[in-house]
Amino acid sequence: MIAFENVAYNYGGGELLSEVSLKLAPGSFHFLTGPSGSGKSTFLKLCYGELLPTAGRLTLFDREVRGLNRDEIARIRGRMGIVHQDCQFLDHLPMAANVALPATVTGREAPMQDLADLMGWVGLADVMQAMPPHLSGGERQRAALARAIIMSPEVVLADEPTGNLDWDMSLRLLQLLIELNRMGKTILIATHDLNLIRTAKQQVAARVLRIAKRRVQLAGADL
Ligand SMILES: Nc1ncnc2c1ncn2[C@@H]1O[C@H](COP(=O)(O)OP(=O)(O)OP(=O)(O)O)[C@@H](O)[C@H]1O
């Protein structure tokens, strides 16, 4: 589904990631961890085609990304749901409209009932008509997850989705991601919260990728 073969990435100041070779299989659950600045967001951006490798071969849904045109990359990205580190919303639109935006902009408007079901699933049924500035951090993160999955992606990539949340809210968000995985979605979460990883591993066969010294490698069972 996502396959790195000897991939490197370099923003121009020397290699940030080197010799990355790994595969994310369909239905798998991965965490990505590593120190601040080690390249977690960069790795995720490679996974969704925002950045292209500066060396090596990266395959997304069986397509080598280098050589794809913008439309082809956009189609691949349409099969992925991305929860960004800073979940931004359009402040002049109610939450339901914000969540529905990926559907609206592609002209495939989500049926109102589907939208209501999705908002209910993330626990935001009561704030569908609220404006974004009135939401708490936890509500915003759950709305960002809802927005990421409204187009039924096969893969969900989340960049520090619990970064600003308290533990209870982090667990709630984790639970939603575990449920998505049980529905068959491939999940990759960048986080430096080891407690979150340990908690998840009690419930799913999550594997942990760790970035260290520019390499991305499977961490041992010590986590
Ligand atoms: N567009 C860019 N141009 C140049 N350097 C960049 C760019 N984006 C990120 N970097 C640098 O690449 C390194 C890795 O950044 P990245 O955001 O991938 O790390 P991270 O592990 O996600 O960090 P954090 O945990 O703090 O979010 C950092 O040193 C950062 O300054």
TrEMBL record:
Origin superkingdom: Bacteria
Short name of one Pfam family: ABC_tran
Lyase recorded as keyword: no
InterPro entries: AAA+_ATPase, ABC_transporter-like_ATP-bd, ABC_transporter-like_CS, ABC_transpr_LolD-like, P-loop_NTPase
GO cellular component terms given for this protein: plasma membrane
Source organism: Szabonella alba
Example GO molecular function: ATP hydrolysis activity
SMART domains in the record: AAA
Protein name, per record: ATP-binding cassette domain-containing protein
Limits of the ABC transporter domain: 2-223
Keywords, comma-separated and alphabetical: ATP-binding, Nucleotide-binding
